Amino acid sequence: MKNHLKILGLLVITVALFSFLNKEDKSELPSKTITHEAAKEMQDRYVETRYEIITSQLGPDTREFYWSLEDLEQYLAYVKKESQKQGVKNPGIRIYLGAYGEEKGGKTTLFFSPTKDVISAENKGEAPLNNYDILPMNTGSGLWPPGSYDPGNPYGEEEIALN
Predict the structure, then answer these.
(1) Kind and range of the H or E element at 129?
(2) Would you say which domain of life the source belongs to (predicted)?
(3) Where in the sequence is the domain holding 102, given as residue range(s)?
(4) Angle (nearest 5°) at CA 158 between 155 and 159
(5) Nearest-5° angle of CA 69, CA 75, CA 80?
(6) Is residue 1 part of a domain?
(7) Total domain count for the chain?
(8) Residue 118 belongs to some domain of the structure
């Protein structure tokens, strides 16, 4: 009986180790990353060319958004699962700008919308189609007052002069 338990224990350890070693490592640097400098330049350009206009017309608004990795991973897993059920082989995510109603001060928000047929659409030079059979995701959070992308300031906080 003890030998059976030892063999069973070794089998469980072997399967667990094999499973761990065969996981695809997706922690390498993705090909579409940008430098901190490029990100800061884009954020600064947005503030200079768009944010000031929005603020002057509507008042201060948010310009950065936050979701935890756990929330994003959970949503991506949901999209993958639902896409597989539909036979969609290469789902994607489209990000839309939106605005809340007056109950949230009319502030800007982002929401994620699943897409389908990403690779086939890329091959044709067309944008992937929205997949309206899968629910979009919203309800992130952000800094208030709005923060800037600044690698030297981890909170990205700044003072905003209200007109």
Answers:
(1) strand 129-130
(2) Bacteria
(3) 65-141
(4) 150
(5) 120
(6) no
(7) 2
(8) yes
